[in-house]
Fold this protein.
Amino acid sequence: MTNTPRTGRRVFAQHVPYAPTHYQCFDAARMIAESVVGIDPDVSCVIGIASGGTKPARLVADYLKVRFHTVTAKHNKNNAPFQQATGDVEVALPDTLPEHLSGTVLLVDDIAGTGATFAAVADALNDRLDYSAEIMTAALFRNRGCPKKPDRWAWTVDDWVVFPWESPHHGPTQPVPALKQVSAL
């Protein structure tokens, strides 16, 4: 297990949380997958960051017809809304993850709040990357305060996001706008 300190502050307008639908999340994952078709080097595997990135990552891997893996990365103390990230990310690599990764390794998460999770997972994978391997990051959402943007993302938000695979939010929520394109660096 790796514990990597990071900095950054999420931005929360604190109106009401965004609540994307399953369909919107699945459509965003498909659009992210389409956005990486033909990159060089090709995406060789997709790694979902558990738990929130697991579902979208599996969809991306299925679309691209590449291997799918998961890693666990934690930094929030709980799932309470509007909490700032601690900056301390604990990463656990499973025994089933290959010892050598090549091509483009696509890390997928549900949200990039500060970029700390992507950075910590990339650091943890560093010893497994072949000399020509590259890490690419993708998230369904990017918080407006995220200082290091992922390579691909669907929506930029300024409030908490309640995902359809999480416990239901008891209170009002706001919809996310229709997705027209994926943002890329």
In short: The radius of gyration is 15 Å. The chain has a mean pLDDT of 89.
